Amino acid sequence: MSKKEDKHELDELFRGNARYLADQPPRGFDQEAVWQQLQTQLPLRPRRRKWPIAWVAAAAVVALTVLVGGVWVLWPEPGTLPVAQPQVPKYPASPAPSQVPVAPGTLAAATTKQHSQVPARQVPSAPEPKAEAIVPPPSTPAEVPAGVAPPEVAEVLAEAGSAEGTLVVKKPEKPRFRVVHVNELRAPEVPQTPSRLHVAVRIGLPGPAEVPVATEARPWLRVPLP
Amino acid sequence: MLAEIVRQCQRDNPFAQKRLYEHFANRMYRLCRRYVPDAFETEEVLMNGFLKIFRALGTFEYRSDDELEVWMKRIMVNEALMYLRRKVGQKAWSLDHPDLPEAEVPHAAQETDADLQAEAIHDLILRLPHGYRTVFCLYAIEGYSHREIAALLGVSENTSKSQLSKARAMLQKLLIKNGYEQERR
Asked: From the list A10, A20, A39, which residue is nearest B168 (CB)?
């Protein structure tokens, strides 16, 4: 046996020996214990999401589509929409009174003059009723007492009477209200009970300044002196 | 079977990782043990090697079981050599006659069973010094060429050849000393 063959045989001996022992459990090797140690150092497996992103995105798209479709279906058509009425403010911002130039000497001018004294905010935006020339009955001026009508109305009536014609402006009278405080309406007159009625009786003569004025409703209290 | 295990390991499946570990644990432990004389440190090298395998499996393209084993053995060998480089240093490969202590070898001379005899022969490798043992294992058992060994250890090819020659001579003596030479003849 040559030296080279010996070397090769030696290599083959150990190679075959290693191959033979390859799957034999080595002495003193605790495979499970090493795995337990190894397991702690292994990179953690990424946890799978219960709801993958694709499903969440698909659900979001469906929900959005349903929402938009529902709004599209339930939304009323433009023809059925109630037309928004332009609301005229009760009290316009412009405080200037409306002045309408009218030829002097006419009943319309007088009426307009009377209206111009009213603040502009009380003038409705609707077009003014046109003055209508009517022939008043003969009893009309006599029926209106001068003391009842306000002086302006009386002035107008006087001017109407002095005018060459008998034109009278028929204008709807505004209702007149008396301004009262709310407490006047609320507070009823509570009759005082006799127990709470205080009667003051003065014994002796009153002073000269304190002598009450005798009235018919309240007679003098006469107290006999001893 | 290994193909599916590798595929699952690439998805970081812990069950597949354990299956792969159980399939190769003994083989890889013995491989590491040939380079690392201490049993406790061998387990450490084995763990680090498997960690690298699991991390590198994502880029591994499975073709056959043999190719997978060769790939894993290369990683384990590199890990063992890295350990030796840290532990012993670069001088371990280049010394002609290292003064390093021999590895502890359990006595197996009296064993008669074939497995025990095989273990005893395997343990003879552990009696070699680091430099001899490393080159002999790489060349005779793992099948590396001298050029590859020189590249791995950072030595010249002549140094590798010299180390191998001396390792063989020493093993021959150990075999004769333990009564194996006559059996081989």
From this structure: A10
